[in-house]
Amino acid sequence: DIQMTQSPSTLSASVGDRVTITCRASQSINSWLAWYQQKPEKAPKLLIYKASTLESGVPSRFSGSGSGTEFTLTISSLQPDDFATYYCQQYQGYRTFGQGTKVEIK
Amino acid sequence: EVQLVESGGGLVQPGGSLRLSCAASGFAFSSTWMSWVRQAPGKGLEWVGRIKSQTDGGTTDYPAPVKGRFTISRDDSGKKLYLQMNSLKTEDTAVYFCTTDHFYNSGWAGYFQHWGQGTLVTVSS
Q1: Confidence tier at B109 by pLDDT (50, 70, 90)
Q2: What percent of chain B has pLDDT over 90?
Q3: Per-residue 3-state assignment (H helix, E strand, C coil) for chain B
Q4: Measuring CA to CA, how many Å separate A20 from each of B52, B81, B123?
Q5: Closest CA relative to residue B69, chosen from B104, B36, B102, B108
Q6: Which pLDDT score, from 0 to 100, does residue B104 have?
Q7: CA-based R_g, chain A, Å
Q8: Which of A9, A47, A90, A95 is the best mutation test for B, with the most CBs of B within 10 A?
Q9: What is the mean pLDDT of residues B105-118?
């Protein structure tokens, strides 16, 4: 199975900050990577697919980049609604997720 | 509007069985590939299986932790997705989400576009 590793596990930031989350795959997954946002007691929400394509309706402050084994999710200017946990997920092989990155208020 | 509503969760003893249902509306269910994803309390997300549309063969795929114990099926006329879980273990305790795959670039991609609210399964004696 392809293992996905996110860093950091927790990130403390303030409104207006630029935030970057990294996701590494144990082998090349080309650009077959998605990002999700999850708030407490809610279902995850798809943000980005194919590493950098923004899902319809997702604010443009979210962006994704990378290919192969290293990927990033960037929030250009953190908003109050963005405090949540973020997961990456590969779909090159059997689908696997990263362990999550919690973005909390500094 | 796409709606996915899971039901059937509850408390079950180790070794027991449970069947989850997902009622779908607002999209072309019969042509959509569907998956189940679970989340143990306080933990991350784990894919537990996928079923293709009948026109694409209706075949299923499962990861190792549930293969041979879990079975996904679908009722296209009733717009329902099912997850039959047998030989349940305490580590199967989780919220189970019903999800749709995404049709992208003339094919079904392996990520999850729409999600239900989830149903909690607790495996405990």
Answers
A1: confident
A2: 94
A3: CCEEEEECCEEECCCCCEEEEEEEECCCHHHCCEEEEEECCCCCEEEEEEECCHHHCCCEECCCCCCCCEEEEEECCCCEEEEEECCCCHHHCEEEEEEEEEEECCEEEEEEEEECCCEEEEECC
A4: 35, 37, 37
A5: B36
A6: 84
A7: 13
A8: A95
A9: 92
Residue A43 and residue B116: Cβ atoms within 8 Å? yes
Judged by CB atoms closer than 8 Å, whether chains meet at B111 and A49 is answered as yes
Retrieve residue A24's tokens. Answer: 């590494």
- Note the residue count of chain B: 125
**A40: pLDDT confidence band, cut at 50, 70 and 90?**
very high
B32 neighbors B100 (Cβ within 8 angstroms): yes
Question: Given pLDDT bands bounded at 50, 70 and 90, which one contains residue B50?
Answer: very high
Q: Which amino acid is at A14?
A: S
Could you please report the per-residue DSSP string of A25-38?
Answer: ESS--TT-EEEEEE
Alpha-carbon distance B63 to B77, whole Å? Answer: 28
> Shortest Cα distance from A74 to chain B (angstroms)?
19
Each residue of A44-80: pLDDT tens digit?
999 999 999 999 999 999 999 999 999 999 999 999 9
For chain B, the straight-line distance linking the first and the last C-alpha, in angstroms and rounded, comes to 40
Amino acid found at B64: A
Calculate how close chain B gets to A100, using CA atoms only, in Å: 6
